[in-house]
From TrEMBL:
Keyword hit for Transit peptide: no
Keywords: Membrane, Transmembrane, Transmembrane helix
Listed transmembrane segments: 7-28
Organism of provenance: Anisodus tanguticus
Protein name: PPM-type phosphatase domain-containing protein
PANTHER family cross-referenced by the UniProt entry: PROTEIN PHOSPHATASE (PTHR47992)
Sequence ranges assigned to domain PPM-type phosphatase in this UniProt record: 69-340
Annotated SMART domains: PP2Cc
Amino acid sequence: MKKQQIRAWNIIIFGFIIAFVVGIFINFKVAKSKPEFEPESEDKSMEEILRMLRSIQKKTMSIPKPTQNCHFASLEGRKCYQEDRVTCDLNLKIPLFGHNGLEEVKFGAVAVFDGHVGPMASEMASHIFLDKFMLNLNSSIEQSSNLKELLKSSLHYSKRHRYSGSTAVVALIYNNHVLVANVGNSKAFLCSQKNISREAGAASLAGLHAEELTRDHNVHRLDERARIEASEGVLKIDHDFVPLFMSHVPMTRAIGVVTWKRYGVIANPEMTDWRSLTSKDEFLVVASDGIFESLAPQKVCDFLNEVEDHSDPSLLAQQLIQKAYLEGSSDNLSVVLVPLGSGDLL
């Protein structure tokens, strides 16, 4: 009787072992044949990636809250989805060391992010840029007077997207000065009163002059082209004679996208020095490149000068992007207008 019981238990135990081994084998085959995350093929064409992204990226654009003297407008335009993102806040408070020790001072930040191959990178940047900048400030009080370095470090993101990237143009306004960081081909510039003649020893003012605070990162610049070619990046001329990186984008610097880093695309921002704002400076303009497909910065300043009513700068921003659209722009359009002539800005 005992032998029969032992034999029965042996059979049961052996059956469990067989079932366990078979289960492992089946799961291993399923895991090999249908991985939870199928890796992308390096040979997958950019057109396929774009089609895939366009089918899933019908997302609501995150709209920042307007603040005093900060006015913006965005338009999807002739594209079937919106990749631009805007961040704007002119009522930020930061701790800085002054003559009387640590003081809380007011400053403003304006940023435009123009996404490409999807809005994921521009969405990420617009959500975390200000938080990261303020965190860097709060954790480095002893270095908070060096806003230039803190701004530069705040545009380096640990989370990167494999294919989606973005431009970044950021302007800080503090103590009647402006500082700009730029990655890619979005722009920041000032529209300032210009002197055209002198009558009776006094200058007469007419029109607005565009002073660009950024330089585009593209292969028209010899330093940018040399870096791309040294990394064996592929350049192609489109039908408008615009050199495109990997046949798709005109810029040679971008945040987010991982796959292009090996071909010389970098995320290092190019910085200006602090530029003093004067009574002649009327507007700070920060915008995505869709505006400049049809309007050069000087044309933007001319438009702002010709408009008689500046009482509603938000409406002015809307009129500007509509004008760029009607002039033929085929891209997303976003612009932030910061009126500087009121005298009460920072």
